[in-house]
Amino acid sequence: MKQRFIEAARGGRTDRPPVWMMRQAGRYLPEYRELRAEYSFLEAISTPELAAEITLQPWERFQPDGIVMYSDILTVLEPLDFAYHLESGVGPVVENPVESPADTDRPRGDVREELWYVGDLLERLSSELGEEAAVLGFAGGPFTLGAYACEGTPSRTFMEIRRLRAEHPEAFRRLLRAFTDVLVDYVTYQVEAGADALQLFDTYAGLLSPADYREFLLPLHQEILEAVDVPTIVFARNMGANLELLAESGADVVALDWTVDIAEARETLAAVGDVAIQGNLDPALLYGDPEDVRERTREVIDAAGDEGHILNLGHGVDRNTPVENVAAFFETAKNASQ
Fold first, then answer.
1. Cα separation, 216 vs 174, whole angstroms
2. pLDDT tens track for 52-103
3. Mind giving me the DSSP string for 152-213?
4. Which residues are catalytically annotated?
């Protein structure tokens, strides 16, 4: 339920940990695949009635405490005049990537006009769910968005934006600034439209050195997260050794990937301040048998402690995950007591 989610996000004790999953609505569900056979991804996310139907598919099966809107982090490329599409077997492809420092001087469109369909979707979800579940909005972080804009396609290293930082630091700052300005408008718009909480996915921020994260990115994270008055969650992969930097972002919740020991993370973050945690079951463990899923999920719940914990995976649920194992994950959370 919504109140359970909000209370945990604020660091409070709840009767059990609230639960949701990253990539909660998606290709592991047969009803999703059936619907998507008729529509492209971009059609689905930009048609509010379709996006609402897809968003609510996991609700109808599992009744999680948080329902995350069906959208994509790359939508905010549109107000900055980047064009993109999804290519089968590749992923997102930016059609006009940054190729020179001059390309970081971006035009600025109106977020509410260009991304109206996101606001419409959130209004539908808020009306449908009421107090039954928290409606989660989200956005990509400025470094991750800039990484896609510079690389043009998914990458393991995203060397192009890291090269931009080394060769043209002012252009690097300008690009991150452009995304941040749009993101402030975007997260504010989401809250106005009905989002009860927001997650900032700066997934690839861990590619920066701690010094560069602190200099270039931390102030931008703080600015984005301070723009709203709902609970906020920050997520970045490979930040286990630098969790205190994520805590300094001002987020109410630090989401942990599966490579982090959740009990140790709790101790590290407690030294920084009153920060809740989210996570962090390895998504690959959902390929085990249902009883193994239950056991490993219980281990995460026990290790996380009895307050300020939102149960989730350490990254998104994989497309081939058995639905019965997803059900076991949710059932374990609902049967837990604290």
1. 11
2. 999 999 999 999 999 999 999 999 999 999 999 888 778 889 999 999 999 9
3. SS--SS-HHHHHHHHH-HHHHHHHHHHHHHHHHHHHHHHHHHT-SEEEEE-GGGGGS-HHHI
4. 23, 27, 36, 72, 148
